[in-house]
Design goal:
This protein has 257 residues and is α/β, with parallel strands linked by helices. It is built from 8 helices and 7 strands; from the N terminus they run E-H-E-H-E-H-E-H-E-H-E-H-H-H-E. Bound molecules: hexanoyl-coenzyme A.
Length: 257
């Protein structure tokens, strides 16, 4: 885990429970690992049951603190069942991360209505479905909800109208929930990862032959390590962020600039 400043006590999440939807790979898995390494019980949820099981196994089986769940965020009943399993095993939820996403690059005029809808369904409706399903299972006050947004929500990129529309919807979803659920002591925030090395998203969005040129244009001249994104997620879920609600935090190394 990337904690060079030693900001977090090694066990500050002991006794807490986290559910990470889309937690079987990429940024979601990185966040799940971070939460687990600081002591939380962690359920990772993904479409593929075998992958979810493998992800939970690779987190570790220390004290039975990891659980793999299979559900498609597009299916509210499946999410409700997964949440019930998680709560049945670990009790009320303290931290919920909605990290499931789908993406591909396609020009707007070539994008079928179904293709557009698919990404809206996974990214935006999926985020709603997860947060809606957990509401009555949150430990309040103190629960923390985190959505994964994107810089494309506010800065359009060719080939990404589906994802841009979905992620900008997520930004407003988070702000709306911050207002509606804040009185119950639930904080809702979004994290905007920059370009993260080794993720499926990067592979899909940037052809390998353009990588070096892209990296040399970034302020920090490098991609993010997934642990750096996980550190920001850890902060937002921690008591150090107890007055941060409805924020869209850019953890992008300044790449937006
Ligand atoms: C054009 C495409 C396409 C492509 C799929 N479609 N891939 N159109 N170019 N490359 C179209 C299909 O033709 C179909 O429309 C519709 O989308 C649904 O496709 P399905 O394959 O039936 O959907 P499904 O099986 O549900 O798969 C979902 C998926 C898939 C998103 C399309 O790629 C997937 O499961 N991806 C895994 C997760 C993923 O993408 N991870 C990366 C996230 S990165 P028609 O009309 O033809 O039937 C990320 C970073 C965000 O999110 C940063 C920027 C925002």
């Amino acid at each position: 885990m990337n904690d060079p400043m030693g900001v977090f006590c090694p066990d500050f999440l002991v006794g807490k429970t986290a559910l990470v939807a889309g937690g079987t790979s990429g940024v979601g898995f990185g966040i799940a690992k971070a939460l687990f390494s600081y002591g939380a019980n962690v359920a990772v949820c993904g479409r593929d049951a075998a992958k979810a099981e493998a992800a939970a196994h690779s987190l570790g089986v220390i004290d039975g603190r990891a659980l793999g769940l299979s559900a498609d965020v597009r299916q509210p009943e499946m999410i409700a069942a997964a949440v019930a399993q998680c709560v049945g095993r670990f009790g009320p939820l303290d931290i919920v991360v909605a990290a499931a996403a789908g993406n591909f690059v396609v020009a707007a005029e070539k994008m079928s209505p179904k293709a557009f809808k698919t990404v809206i369904d996974i990214d935006l409706l999926g985020c709603f479905n997860v947060f809606h399903a957990v509401f009555t299972h949150l430990r309040c006050p103190g629960a923390s909800l985190l959505a994964i947004s994107s810089g494309h929500a506010t800065r359009p990129v060719a080939g990404q109208i589906h994802a841009s529309a979905a992620k900008s919807g997520i930004n407003m979803l988070v702000k709306g929930l911050a207002v509606e659920w804040g009185p119950a002591g639930i904080r809702t925030n979004a994290l905007v990862p920059g370009p993260v090395a080794g993720t499926e998203g990067m592979a899909r969005l940037l052809p390998t032959d353009q990588l070096a040129g892209y990296v040399s244009s970034l302020p920090l001249r490098r991609l993010a390590d997934v642990n750096e994104i996980a550190s920001a997620a850890l902060f937002l879920a921690s008591p150090a962020a107890s007055y941060i609600n409805g924020a869209i935090l850019e953890c992008d190394g300044g790449s937006r600039l």
